[in-house]
Structure formats: C-alpha cells, structure tokens
Amino acid sequence: MMQAPDLPTWAAIMVGLLVLGGAILTLVGALGLLRLPSFYARVHATTLGATAGMTAILLGSMLCFSILQTRPVIHEILIALFVTLTTPVTLILLARAAIYRDRSEKAPQVPSDGRPPRREK
C-alpha cells in the first residue's frame, strides 16, 4: 500500500528533507551520548536530539499524509504532544537521581545548587 508516487515532486522533496534532517538531528544527539564527558552533558544532548529529530520527522509525516489525504492529520500532533511532555520530565527525573547519587557519594563533578556552602561549626 505505497502511495508515495501520488505525492507531488515538491512535496516529496520537502518530506524527504524533513525526514532526513530529523534523522540527522537524532543521530547527532546519539553521538553526543557517546562523545560528551559527563552524564549531565550526555543526557542533555540526547533529549535535545530526540526532541528536535522527532519534530522534523513528524513535520515530514504531517506534510506527506496531509497532501495524500487532503485533510490535516491529527495523529502526529498527539505524538508530538506526548513526546514533548514526557522527554523533559524524564530528563529532570534522571538528572535529579544522578545529582542525589553524586552528592551522597561526595563526587567532585556535582553541579552546585546555587546556594553558598554551609560553614561547619
């Protein structure tokens, strides 16, 4: 059930560029997971790559199926909404767990909490 030949050439090029761009953004985020030095930098790169890549891929999908069905497609909007809401929440939970672990182990690379250090009496 391949309907891609029914797409106009301009739409096929735009869909291809959006999907390819989204895949490249997701790949850059995955490479950040491998290349960045600390957990905090790694988790930031992957969430940005996943969100930006997902946005571009879903825009390409929306364009493709809106043209083929001659009506807007709502499924992609719901997918984008759920991924956009859950990705930052997951980032916050992972970062807080890592900060708690690092502070309890008194690790030197823990980000500061912005408060001045307490003086021992």
UniProtKB/TrEMBL annotation:
Looking at the keywords, is Iron present? no
Matching Pfam families, A to Z?
A: PhaG_MnhG_YufB (PF03334)
Q: Which InterPro entries match?
A: PhaG_MnhG_YufB
| Presence of the UniProt keyword Transmembrane helix in the record | yes
What Gene Ontology molecular-function terms does this entry list?
Answer: sodium:proton antiporter activity
Q: Any idea which UniProt keywords this protein has?
A: Membrane, Transmembrane, Transmembrane helix
Name this protein carries in UniProt? Cation:proton antiporter
Q: Which residues cross the membrane?
A: 12-34, 46-68, 74-95
Top-level taxon of origin: Bacteria
